[in-house]
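Handoff note, outgoing to incoming analyst
You'll be picking up this chain. Sequence as last confirmed:
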Amino acid sequence: MQFKAVLLAAAATVPFAAGAYTEEDYLAWFKENQTAQPQFAEGDTITFDKADQVRPFIPKEFQSEWIFEGMEMKIKDAGDLSPSDVYKAATEKNKGTAKIASDGAIENYAAGRPFDPAEFKPGKEDGWKMVWNWNYRWQNDGLSVGEVHWVWVRRGGEHSKHEIMTADGGKYAKYYEGGGSFERALAGPYNRFLMSHNAKHEATGYRVNNGEGFAKDTEFREYTGFTSPFDIAGTAFLILRYDDPRKADDSWAYIPSLRRVRRISVEVKSDSLLGTDHTLEDFYGFNGRPMEHDWEYIGTTKILVVARSRNREAVYYGPNGWAIKDDYALRLTDVMKQIPKRSNHPYSKKFIHVDRESGESYYANAFDKAGELWKVWQLTKVWSDDPYVQNNPDKFNKERSPAGTRFQLFQSINVVDLQNNRGTLVPCRGAEAPNKELKDMKRLLDVNYLTEGR
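Most recent structure output, in case you need it:
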């Protein structure tokens, strides 16, 4: 046992060899996962000497980040993560009406979950069904995050002297344990407002304002802003996603140095976002237009994830500061394969794991144009109806998710570039899914006001 522990410790110190890992390697782990049986139980705390118990339920390419000397993985069932009753009612009412056209577009869809994932079979047909389920998952009126941080972390070193550890009297320091060299930190708010296929608006055809005025022909509008550091303060992105699945987005960026709003192309949304390891398209796990890609349904896995955190904010630890110290639940996920249609898209393929019950994503990986593993994502969640969310006066966001929202809010979205040995940690501080009014959202999400206050 002592010799085995030494071998495990040695293996854990070696960075994952991304260039040697291909789609075939990932699918080999996927196949092994199908027959794996948990050797742990509710309430167990998995430490390094017990790591073999959890390896089958952690994608192999991410094991070196989750498994290390000093790890603490508390096993805790996440309980019932089913969506709001209003979404369930819309699903039942509209069951069997949505169809997939020959080009993959969804047709005759109203609201709720379009397709039953229990009926999915591996292949392209159900790949399209899965991505439309993903696109129309339950989100209340949308998401509001008071303060999103984008922290660039290089493997090795430490970060005790970085400005994020001392800012505002050190209020963030408690969230960043462990190692890793912090290179840069960006910050700013985020807002998304759903205007069509919203289960809460059955009386008006599931559309905000009956689909008129500012909400006309619109699925959602999304704002991503940056307030620091000084050299990018005021930069903002606005995306308008049309209700027509075949119609390309309208997207704009305000660049303070140019003092003007500029339209951005589809290519920009798959480029590095202001030097981070994320793209606008990577948000949520996938935030692009489904029609710009092809899709395959791969099957199901059971993976250990932070599905219902015990902490309001993400707490990072580990040798590189990339791991999350929290409760981990074994969740059934459906896996879809994203295959970009554009030849100049940076990824050749991406696999996305989505919770069967809640519809939210926990994990994804992407391969470069040569077919070698490039990036891995871990997404962690808090539950909107838990007491520490409902009753905690949040210093990061004054908005609130009403009781009964039943939504997995972002806690963090973290990506590691395994080829560059760098990650971007994205804690979403004060994430909420509040009830929103059109009149309150028009000013924030109108391109004519994109430069205001900047």
